[in-house]
Amino acid sequence: MAMKSVYLNYTNRAQTPLAVWLLLLTGALMLTIVLMRFQQIKAHNAELQTKLATRAEPVTAPVVADNPQIKKEAEAVNGAIRDIVIPWPLLWKALEAANDDGVQMLVLEPNVKTRTVRMSLIALNHAAMWAYLKNLNQQSVLQYVRLISSEATDVNGQHAVAFLVEATW
Amino acid sequence: MLVLSNAFVRYAVLTWNDEIKTKQERSVYLQHSFLQHFGEVSKHWLLCEHLAGYGQASIASGIDQVLFKQLEAIFAAADMPLKAAHPLLMLAMNQALVYFKKSKLQQSFWLACFESERLALVLIVQGEWKLVHNVSLEPDANLQLHTLIQRETVLENADESLPVLLFADGEIRQVDSRSLPSMQAVSQTESMQPTSCFVQRKWVA
């Protein structure tokens, strides 16, 4: 076992050894460096976040060329993009929340351009229809819920009401 | 720096104690150890300890408080700051450690620190303090050292072939314990440094 140097001193028995001060100084220096580096990284991160926010642009449809074939393909791509853009999860969630046992949905037609959704539904009676419209109105995703038309009809010999509703998301 | 002769200093090896946790307990243990070694007189001493590694015995020294206060007063009167006051054995031991480090030898040895009227003998086994004796020098220093080493080898169950380091005149020499050189006291009182309290001894080949 290596033996360390002996230190016996009567004058400064309570004095802290130089090595301890050096260690403390080194620690303080390292802490300062780490803090400075942390600040630098923080500032750089904020800068990158700003750049990222600036670069974030809405998804746009590709430019369509004059070639009919390309135009057709571009339209197909645009359609696909629109489908992606439609907030399906939110819409479905809202429609499920507004669901009523007395109402059945027949058709659902979302329109990206006008940001509207058109629904063909059938209800057992008018009361069920009004209740459904009220439920739709209460969904935060849907705005301007409008009853476009309603028509008395017959389903398997039973009285029913077919109606058309449009809402904006 | 003031170097105190072993004539003014008393030493004790303090065994490791697991029960001691705080500085206060350490201080009490130090005082108690000196009381056991040197009696009531040690209550008036200024004690100083060098802590070794965990689980190892440590070395401690003590000097008379009145003497030290007088020394401080002398230094203050001379407008000299007394920054350090070390016992001679500390310097001898540190030189011995340097010697062993250079020689790359195992740290088990005897260290004999000679002064004109004092002999301090230390036994280090595998880097740990085993014993320290600080005795008056007899007329036949060679015989005294030989006898002391022989006796302590038996008492401490130490290895008989341990090297012996002699410290005198500020120098370290390694010798064979069976052929110790003869000593001749050469009082150097006249040539002493102003801050040095010890009287040195020279070797005669």
Please sum up the structure shown.
The complex is a heterodimer of chains A (169) and B (205). With 169 residues, chain A is α+β, with helices and mostly antiparallel strands.
Descriptive account of the structure:
The complex is a heterodimer of chains A (169) and B (205). Chain A is an alpha+beta fold. Chain A has helices at residues 18-55, 68-85, 88-98, 126-137; strands at 103-111, 116-123, 143-155, 158-168. Chain A has two domains: 18-56; 87-168, General secretion pathway protein M, EpsM (Gyrase A, domain 2, 2-Layer Sandwich), CATH 3.30.1360.100. The model of chain A has no long low-confidence stretch (mean pLDDT 85). With 205 residues, chain B is α+β, with helices and mostly antiparallel strands. In chain B, the strands form four sheets. Chain B has a five-stranded mixed sheet with strand order 8-7-6-9-10, with helices on both faces. A three-stranded antiparallel sheet of chain B has the order 2-4-3. Classes of the chains: A alpha+beta (169), B alpha+beta (205). Chains A and B meet through loops of A and β3, β4, β5 and α3 of B.
Major β-sheet profile of chain B: 5 strands, mixed
| Residue runs with pLDDT of under 50 for 5 or more positions of chain B | 184-205
Beta strand % of chain A: 15-25%
The fraction of residues in strands of chain B falls at: 25-35%
Radius of gyration of chain B: 17 Å
In helices, the fraction of residues of chain A equals 40-55%
Cα shape of chain B: globular
How large is the radius of gyration of chain A?
35 Å
Largest interface: A-B, 13 and 28 residues
Tally of distinct domains of chain A: 2
- Count of runs of 4 or more consecutive helical residues of chain B: 4
Average pLDDT number of chain B: 84
Approximately how much helix is present in the residues of chain B?
Answer: 25-40%
Q: What strand line-up does the widest sheet of chain B have?
A: 8-7-6-9-10
What do the pLDDT scores of chain A average to?
85
What best-fitting shape of chain A do the alpha-carbon axes yield? elongated
Major sheet characteristics of chain A: 4 strands, antiparallel
Straight-line distance between termini of chain A:
79 Å
